[in-house]
Specification:
The complex is a heterodimer of chains A (268) and B (284). In chain A, 67% of the residues lie in helices and 3% in strands. Chain A has helices at residues 6-9, 18-34, 38-54, 59-83, 108-132, 137-146, 151-179, 191-221, 241-262, and strands at 89-92, 105-107. In chain A, helix 2 (18-34) packs parallel to helix 9, helix 3 (38-54) runs parallel beside helix 5 (108-132) and helix 4 (59-83) packs antiparallel against helix 5 (108-132). Chain A is globular, with a radius of gyration of 23 Å. With 284 residues, chain B is of the alpha/beta class. In chain B, strands 6-7-8-3-9-10 form a 6-stranded mixed β-sheet. A 4-stranded antiparallel β-sheet of chain B has the order 2-1-4-5, with no helix packed on it. The longest helix of chain B has 16 residues, at 173-188. Classes of the chains: A mainly alpha (268), B alpha/beta (284). Chain A binds chain B through residues 3, 170, 173-174, 176-185, 187, 199-201, 203-204, 207-208, and chain B through 18, 51, 54, 56, 75-77, 80-81, 84-87, 89, 91-95, 105-106, 109-110, 139, 153-154, 157.
Chain lengths: 268, 284
């Protein structure tokens, strides 16, 4: 998780209304789930990368996300290759394994579907920072509430996001504290040893986070959270022309996407 | 580097990744067996400085040597055996399911034999008065005892130097006293003590040397008497001498600095009371 510095980011996406970004984000989610053909999902990925470029978000964040997705991506790819009932045989692997429906061949369709699924995951993961990194949390929450998301749910979502940097900070303090106890495993190159050391990190971290959330609960209650009256909002803003253009584009893309799918395009 | 030196900083500067320059050209030598207090307002850089002594932070420029070795080339876990660091919040250090296991963790990691570990744990718990609670879950202990346990965990690595980050913060009077007593005991055994604190009476009472950090630089350095005599200067650094010191200064004692009630009473008796009367209950 990167520390979000809104002021120095200077992204054109910051000028957009949070509601616009949220709707566009959901539009891209739907499109990503709509298509299962790698070329279509790749097209969507290119679109997201263009928005990333326009939004002047740091490219190394994409690198971090991809590193994070590496293992799960490989698992998805392998599973699809084995389980997708394809027709065009490419490589012979083994004798058929009947009970999982594996024909013994890596098929073109299985491979394509696997790639599409991985690309879909990448799209969904890299589209989120476009919203999260360019929207102050209070605006994000108001946008959720204005879109009729229940206030308590919106609050949970935004609080979770705002707690991430502080949890990350706490984790690094704990890690330092454990290094001071002579625990060498964080510095070990072996992944398994490193994972074992994580247990020592997680116990104080989780306990600490519970304690913090209890404090937050008391602090919120003492500031009238959940008072049985209709609340007002500090942030009230209207959509601008650019917002309408983006909303319209999202709508058009969605309609086009659904039309294509109905006509049988975009899937294997 | 002489045999007696344990830590030496030469032109140490440090910047955080966000560009904030937290330390500027620090030159400091700490000798074996010293009791040094690091004071300064919040954000002055005292914790950042002390974290350099066990390699948790590495200098951006300049050098830090611990027992003659550059920290830049050493791992924290290696340096932890020479410079122990007790964090402000003991809960960040504890993660095992009993007091006994907690103390045993470090030595086990370092490859001590089972019998040795057992003996070490027993003696440390006895020493710190935690032996009655050795089967207790660490988080069921009081804050004072958790702090002692954190010290026990560091003690189990048998370092030469102990650094304490605000050891009395959040403790009640007796909790604070008891942890300070423990630190004094370690010092009496010849350990080098470094302590980060905001508590000036504590510094006056325990430390032999005070290092005042301000905006990443050493602003003032000397014995508690030398430092606390400069009340005006300390005020410009957002610090305040102990009340008893200021009281003595306001009463007109100019030629020497009073650090505690005992010294104050001695001075008052000598100057104003020809026939001293003993106070019941004793004087501090």
């Amino acid at each position: 998780m990167m520390n979000i510095d809104f002021a120095s980011l200077n992204s054109p996406l910051q000028k957009l209304h949070a509601r616009t970004k949220l709707i566009a984000l959901m539009g891209i989610f739907v499109l990503a789930l709509l298509f299962s053909h790698p070329f279509y999902v790749l097209g969507l990925l290119v679109l997201v990368l263009v928005i990333w470029w326009i939004g002047r978000l740091p490219w190394n964040l994409i690198k971090t996300i991809l590193q994070f997705l590496l293992v799960i991506g490989i698992i998805i790819l392998v599973v699809q290759i084995f389980f997708y009932p394809g027709k065009t045989n490419l490589v012979h692997l083994s004798a058929p394994i009947k009970f999982i429906g594996f024909s013994g061949y890596i098929t073109l369709e299985g491979l394509m579907f696997g790639i599409a699924m991985v690309l879909r995951l990448v799209v969904i993961m890299i589209v989120a920072p476009l919203m999260v990194m360019t929207t102050p949390l209070p605006e994000f929450m108001v946008a959720l509430v204005k879109l009729k998301v229940p206030y308590r749910f919106a609050f949970i979502m935004t609080t979770a996001l705002s707690l991430l940097p502080s949890i990350q900070n706490h984790a690094s303090i704990i890690q330092q504290a454990q290094l001071c106890r002579g625990i060498t495993d964080f510095e070990n190159k072996n992944l398994l040893t490193k994972l074992r050391a994580m247990a020592g990190l997680l116990v104080p971290l989780i306990l600490g986070t519970f304690r913090d959330s209890q404090t937050l609960d008391v602090a919120m209650s003492s500031r009238a959270f959940g008072a049985p009256v209709k609340r007002t909002f500090l942030l009230e803003s209207r959509l601008g022309a650019v917002d309408y253009i983006i909303l319209l584009t999202t709508l058009l893309l969605l309609v086009a996407g659904i039309y294509l799918r109905i006509r049988g395009y975009g899937s294997l | 580097m002489s045999d007696n030196e344990v830590i030496r900083c030469q032109d140490l500067s440090f910047s955080y990744p966000n560009g904030l320059e937290a330390l500027k050209n620090i030159n400091l030598t700490i000798s074996r067996g010293e009791y040094v207090a690091f004071v300064g307002q919040n954000g002055s850089g005292k914790t950042t400085l002390v974290k350099h002594f066990n390699g948790l932070l590495k200098p951006t420029r300049g050098s830090v040597q611990v027992f003659g070795e550059e920290t830049r080339e050493k791992k924290v876990s290696t340096l932890a055996r020479k410079v122990g660091y007790v964090f402000q919040n003991p809960d960040d250090m504890l993660f095992c399911s009993s007091v006994k296991e907690e103390v045993a963790y470090g030595p086990t990691m370092l490859g001590f034999k089972e019998a040795e570990v057992k003996e070490k744990v027993e003696s440390i718990l006895q020493e710190l008065g935690l032996d009655a609670q050795k089967e207790t879950h660490p988080f069921a202990l009081s804050l004072g005892d958790r702090q002692r346990l954190a010290v026990a965990c560091v003690l189990s690595l048998d370092p030469e130097v102990f650094a304490f980050d605000e050891p009395t913060t959040g403790q009640d009077y007796f909790g604070g006293e008891s942890i300070m007593e423990l630190i004094d005991q370690l010092h009496a055994k010849g350990k080098t003590i470094l302590i980060i604190t905001h508590d000036m009476p504590l510094v006056a009472e325990h430390a032999q040397r005070v290092v005042v950090i301000n905006q990443g630089q050493i602003a003032l350095e000397g014995t508690p008497k030398e430092v606390f005599s400069q009340t005006e200067h300390l005020h410009t650094l957002s610090l305040r001498s102990p009340q008893i010191t200021i009281l003595a200064q306001n009463l007109g004692l100019k030629d020497r600095t009073v650090l505690n009630i005992k010294e104050m009473v001695e001075w008052l008796e000598k100057e104003y009371l020809p026939a001293p009367k003993k106070v019941k209950g004793g004087i501090a």
